[in-house]
Amino acid sequence: MLNHRKLAAQALLAVVFWPSLFFFWFLGPFVFFLLSTTSSEVCARLETRAEFLAAANGTIPMLAVQNLIYAVPILCLVLWGRLLPEPARARHIVTCIKLFAAAVVVGALWEYGSSLVCDGYGQPFFSPFWRMTSYLPIVSLIINVPLYVLAFSLGRAFSTREDAAEDEASPPA
Question: Where are its TM segments located (predicted)?
Fold first, then answer.
């Protein structure tokens, strides 16, 4: 009975993990980027430093929600790690968490910074540091590619039934 509960829990985690990995991690960044940055219509109406800060600070709740939603696959990996403890996988999960934390920081700086440099008038309201955030998508890509690959491989390893993996490994009689 306990084994059936574990299998049911694994299956439930797989049902949550795979769609969230696809929709949140692969499609979500495009949607959230469009929603979280200041639009070009608003940019033309911003004329003071206070207005730019208010617009950029308005993105913070969206960034928080975005990162909570992005954490769903990581949470699934942690729960899978608790269900099927294995030291090698646990180290990979910790690596995933570290990469995810770095991706969150870089993504938040990029999206917040892109809101601050969005002035149609070329007025230098803010430090050149915020203009440098245009390079952060490259850094984000460097972090996210290994994160995606590792999360995908961990998800595949966790969602594969152990008895099916043993059947594949054993030579046919």
Answer: 12-35, 55-80, 92-112, 132-151
